[in-house]
Amino acid sequence: MEEESNSADSNEHLIPDKQNDSIDENSSDTLPGSALNFPKQINTINNMSSFSAAQSVAEALKRTNTLNSMSSFSAAQSVAEALKRTNTLNSMSREHQMQENVIQENYSSSLKLKKDIIELEKQILEFENKYSEKSEEHKEATEELEKLKVLIETYDSKSKLNHIASKIHPEAANLLYSNHDLLKEFDKDTSRNVTVLSIDIRRSTELMLKAKDPHSYALFISEIAVGLKEIILANFGIFDKFTGDGILAFFSEFYSGKDFLAHSLKAANECHEFFNKYYNLNRNKFKIVMKDIGLGIGIDYGEANIIKINNELTVIGNPVVYACRFSGCQPNQTLSNQGMVDALREKYDSYLNIEESLIDIKHEGKAFGYTAYLNFNKLQLINPFWLRDSN
């Protein structure tokens, strides 16, 4: 009992004050002593057990609540973490999708760029092929054009040569194709010292009227022209033109040589001889054969230009004018102007004889003319260089 009392005493500190008060109030019960206290103790113990249980329950609930709170917090935290991870994953997914979109766009752009490059390469290839074809066509056209130019130049050259060749000695004409220096001399646009020979068939109109028929006269004149031209060329002169009743020719040092003055005078003498002989041989072509028929030849010396008109070689200048006017002299006469006589005296004075005469020049009046005689038997004429080279 004492131990119980002590137990009771030892357990008093576990009972709250209010509970103690309750026990005191029940102490007035009829149960005495220990008997009375036992149920009380039992109740106390029960009360204590209930309190402890309640307290345990409370603690358990508290722990449960704590755990629930902790569980809720953890759950929320887990959810948050899960949401965060989900958002992160969503962000990563969006970034990944964006990257995929960028990659897809880049791929599409790259594919389009490759297609464009292929198309451009195709166009370049087509252009190169087309240009190559055009280049070949252009090359062929250029080559054909060059050939045409050569043909035109050759034609022009040969045409020019032909026009010159028909006016000069055959040997000189052959040399023109190989001696370009000679050809260049004909192309020089410069004045030269020349002797001009103008030949006129005196009284040609009356001679035509005395012919048996026009054909006979035409044949006579044409053969005269051919014969006179041959004499001019044989004496290294340049034939200019046939005037209808005579011819015009000229001589110059670049072609006729250093003795071009003497060659022109010699040609004049031979022309007179040829005409008279031919006229006598062809009297049968005329109804009346007149006596005073012959050539009038005028010669003048001075500066003149050798040019081409319509690709025809001709000479122009003051000597041409007076050679033509002096050819109006008497038939079978060669009349030189003052310039020609001065040039002859300077070079051939010891071989020269001069006869002075007058000529009535239309619209100018009377003028002195000179008949020059050179001693060709003693005078050794020098041939032009092209004839020496040809030999």
TrEMBL record:
Q: Would you kindly state one Gene Ontology biological process term found in this protein's UniProt entry?
A: cyclic nucleotide biosynthetic process
Coiled-coil-forming residues are: 110-158
Q: Which CDD domains match?
A: CHD
Give start and end of each Guanylate cyclase domain: 195-327
Q: Where is the composition biased (Basic and acidic residues)?
A: 10-21
Q: Which InterPro entries match?
A: A/G_cyclase, Nucleotide_cyclase
Q: Which GO terms describe its molecular function?
A: adenylate cyclase activity
Annotated spans, Disordered: 1-35
Keyword set, alphabetical order: Coiled coil
Keyword Coiled coil attached: yes
Q: Which domain of life is it from?
A: Bacteria
Q: What is this protein called?
A: Adenylate/guanylate cyclase catalytic domain protein
Organism in which the protein naturally occurs: Leptospira yanagawae serovar Saopaulo str. Sao Paulo = ATCC 700523
* Phylogenetic placement of the source organism: Bacteria, Pseudomonadati, Spirochaetota, Spirochaetia, Leptospirales
